[in-house]
Amino acid sequence: MNRVPLKQIVLPLAASAGLCLAIAYFWPVDGLWLNLGTELIGILVTVWYVDWILDRHDESRWRSTDLLVNEQLKVALTDVVLAVRQGLQDLNILEDPELREDTNVLTTLVDQAAGYDVDRVRKQIDRVGSKGMEALGESVDRALESLARFFDRYSHRLNPETSTLVIRLERALNESKLPISVVREVDLSEVELDSPIRFSLEQGDDLWRGGLAIALADSFSLCTELNRHRSRAAA
Description:
Layout (H helix, E strand, L loop, with lengths): L5 H21 L5 H56 L9 H5 L3 H8 L5 H11 L4 H22 L5 H26 L10 H39 L1
């Protein structure tokens, strides 16, 4: 059952109680208005107390669900970071066998995303090369799928700030797909070395790679911000 907003009850009751007390002060009639005003105040206190009890009950009832949502958000963020890093071929954190079994590896992965600025991502994109763009594109698709699954299932339990950050992350990942598709279609190996066409393609390729670096660096930054927000909510 939907609850009526508290202010829609409190404000009329408070106004009515105040009016009754004011009338009782200027026009006492056998204590009628005074009794009515104090009765309304009693109702007001009761309504506030019942609303407080219901809020506490809701918090208790949904706490386990909110903890689950929080953990699933951590998993979704890790999927995003891991997928994009895999596409960029930088998975050194998983080389240690102990880290693979460590439950904190999820948080460690997301925390390390803070170090992925535009310059670092750009250097990794340059190492990937045009042929590696297909793998990077598939990685971004996997990241988007994981994020979409999480949002479809749990969006109704997210607060507005978290929802906004998730939407921004999804937008940043989507913005990386166009540069990836453009770079994948530019195969400079088939163009002659001194060809003006090659020079034009190289300039265009460089431009799109820069845009891709910005989009992916923004994605890493949003993952870190979401993880900090998630950690505060879990505390």
